[in-house]
């Protein structure tokens, strides 16, 4: 079973937590049966104390054994649910795992900045990070150039190709927060066509579309107090690269 955050408004929907959505997407992409349990973080964290004391959401319960770290959960699922029965979600290119890593860090620093004099510099840093991601999405990958050496703009749908990978499961939930345009009225520039096409492509797949919280949940006052490691803006960064290396290490 997978324990994830409950929405604050209706008491039924999935709440705003990019780490919970990330794991939810992975499980759906693996195509393995699972039970999703939503937890009210304001009232019912006692539910977790019995089997995962001190843990943060999301929590994966596998054969009665709790798994509590998002990156370690992904590694466990990739090692346990392997081909040929289950698809591998590991990107072919390590650059796909690092693309967009600093977008959320820059966004978090910008919207939490209490000093107006720093706003312009912080927004500039965020725009540079978005431009860097857009460039990666629009640049053809090696496999695309092998198929068409004259290709100048990538035709792939996602970070690593035409299928969602662990890299997308990490980036999309956080990028979806940036695109909400609520915080300081910041919006992703329309001329970053690579990012907008990427988001449009994601909305066409159920693994992303059906796991998204509604916009009201994303911009609720408590939306920024879900995951301690998230506040540093580094979540999904260096740890993901370590995860990529571990998943690519040959089995002994």
TrEMBL record:
User: Do you know which SUPFAM superfamilies this protein is assigned to?
Assistant: GST C-terminal domain-like (SSF47616), Thioredoxin-like (SSF52833)
Q: Where in the cell is it found?
A: Cell membrane; Cytoplasm; Nucleus; Secreted, Extracellular space, Extracellular matrix
- UniProt region (Disordered), positions on chain: 230-252
Pfam family, any one: CLIC-like_N
**Where is it chiefly localized?**
membrane
| Membrane topology, as annotated | Single-pass membrane protein
What's the catalysed reaction?
Answer: chloride(in) = chloride(out)
Which keywords annotate this record?
Cell membrane, Chloride, Chloride channel, Cytoplasm, Disulfide bond, Extracellular matrix, Ion channel, Ion transport, Membrane, Nucleus, Oxidoreductase, Phosphoprotein, Secreted, Transmembrane, Transmembrane helix, Transport, Voltage-gated channel
Highest taxon in the source lineage: Eukaryota
Q: Spell out the subunit comment.
A: Associated with the C-terminal of MAPK15.
Under PANTHER family, the record lists:
CHLORIDE INTRACELLULAR CHANNEL 3, CHLORIDE INTRACELLULAR CHANNEL PROTEIN 6-RELATED
The family note in this entry says:
Belongs to the chloride channel CLIC family.
Protein name as catalogued:
Chloride intracellular channel protein 3
């Amino acid at each position: 079973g997978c324990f994830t955050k409950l929405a604050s408004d209706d008491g039924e929907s999935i709440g705003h937590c990019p780490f919970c959505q990330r794991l939810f997407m992975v499980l759906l992409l693996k195509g393995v049966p699972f039970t999703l349990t939503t937890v009210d973080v304001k009232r019912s964290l006692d539910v977790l104390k019995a089997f995962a004391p001190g843990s943060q959401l999301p929590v994966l319960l596998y054969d009665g054994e709790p798994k509590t770290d998002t990156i370690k959960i992904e590694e466990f699922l990739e090692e346990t649910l392997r081909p040929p029965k289950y698809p591998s979600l590991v990107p072919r290119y390590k650059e796909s795992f690092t693309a967009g890593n600093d977008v959320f860090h820059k966004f978090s620093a910008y919207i939490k900045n209490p000093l107006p004099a720093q706003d312009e510099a912080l927004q500039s840093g965020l725009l540079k990070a978005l431009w860097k991601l857009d460039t990666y999405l629009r640049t053809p990958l090696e496999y695309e150039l092998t198929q068409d050496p004259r290709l100048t703009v990538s035709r792939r749908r996602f970070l690593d190709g035409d299928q969602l990978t662990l890299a997308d499961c990490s980036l999309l939930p956080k990028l979806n927060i940036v695109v909400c345009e609520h915080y300081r009225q910041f919006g992703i520039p329309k001329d970053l066509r690579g990012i907008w096409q990427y988001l449009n492509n994601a909305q066409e797949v159920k693994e992303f579309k059906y796991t998204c919280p509604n916009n009201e949940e994303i911009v609720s006052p408590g939306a920024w107090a879900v995951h301690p490691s998230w506040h540093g803006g580094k979540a999904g960064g260096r740890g993901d690269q370590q995860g990529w290396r571990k998943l690519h290490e040959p089995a002994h």
